[in-house]
Design a protein that fits this description.
heterodimer, A: 81 residues, alpha+beta, Ubiquitin-like (UB roll), five-stranded mixed beta sheet, 5 strands, 28% helix, globular, B: 161 residues, Aldehyde Oxidoreductase, domain 3, four-stranded mixed beta sheet, four-stranded antiparallel beta sheet, 4 helices, 10 strands
């Protein structure tokens, strides 16, 4: 199945862009998407370990099952204010 | 008023129709762009956000402040986009019956927004380089452990691109 990854903040910088496409086996979890995405680059893998995740404007855990065409938002540590 | 806005923040707009006859205290907090961070000169900032989630968190914090202190009114607005030194990044208005809870509520509100709202701050330096400010991790510890454990198992997926 295919999902879209939307990166924010430093995750966008180290991954080389805000939006990426991933091909994953059916019934993959968020943890598996992060694992595969992080194989591209060690710095990216380190950033992913500190990213929270959201799908459809809802926070999800790494055990969340993914579906075809999901958009997985990667939220690195925040620094508003 | 939207919780997030690209245009310069207006205290007058945030204060409009906020008066409460039963409140003797009004606390206003403004976070402004500083020209240095951890010993390094900063030329300007760019704020970005997951807009839907950040707005949701800010509304939650406003409601928490009204419930916990209690405050009769709490309004928060955060700026996004490119900001120059001295510009206002966040405004918080709190009205309470007495002064102690007004100060405490404003302090609570700014701390919670900094820790919980998915907003990112990219600092630009005089030499043209930039970096994202290291902030607060939104992931809970148990969830992070799960990722570590899973990754250590060495699963591999036939992904492309």
């Amino acid at each position: 199945m295919q999902i879209t990854i939307h990166c924010y903040g430093v995750a966008a910088r180290v991954s080389g862009g805000e939006t990426h496409t991933l091909q994953l086996p059916e019934r993959s979890k968020v943890s598996e998407a992060l694992e595969y995405f992080g194989e591209r680059d060690a710095e990216l893998a380190a950033v992913l370990r500190r990213c929270a995740c959201a799908i459809d404007d809802r926070m999800v855990t790494r055990s969340q099952m993914l579906s075809e065409d999901d958009v997985l938002a990667l939220l690195p540590p925040v620094a508003g204010g | 008023m939207s919780a997030l806005q690209e245009a310069p923040l207006s205290l007058d707009a945030l204060m409009a129709d906020s008066a409460r006859a039963d409140c003797g205290a009004l606390a206003i907090f403004a976070g402004t762009v500083r020209n240095h961070h951890e010993g390094r000169a900063v030329a300007r900032l760019v704020y970005t956000a997951h807009a839907a989630l950040a707005a949701e968190v800010i509304r939650e914090v406003e409601q928490e402040v009204q419930r916990l202190f209690p405050a009769k009114l709490c309004r928060i607005v955060h700026r996004l986009g490119a900001l120059e030194i001295g510009e206002t990044a966040i405004l918080i208005v709190v009205r309470t019956p007495h002064r102690a809870e007004a100060f405490a509520a404003a302090q609570y509100a700014i701390t919670q927004v900094k820790h919980r709202a998915p907003i990112w701050k990219e600092e630009f330096y005089p030499d043209g380089s930039s970096a994202f400010v290291q902030g607060c991790c939104l992931i809970d510890e148990g969830d992070a452990h799960q990722h570590e454990h899973h990754a250590s198992q060495g699963h591999h997926h036939p992904g492309v691109e």
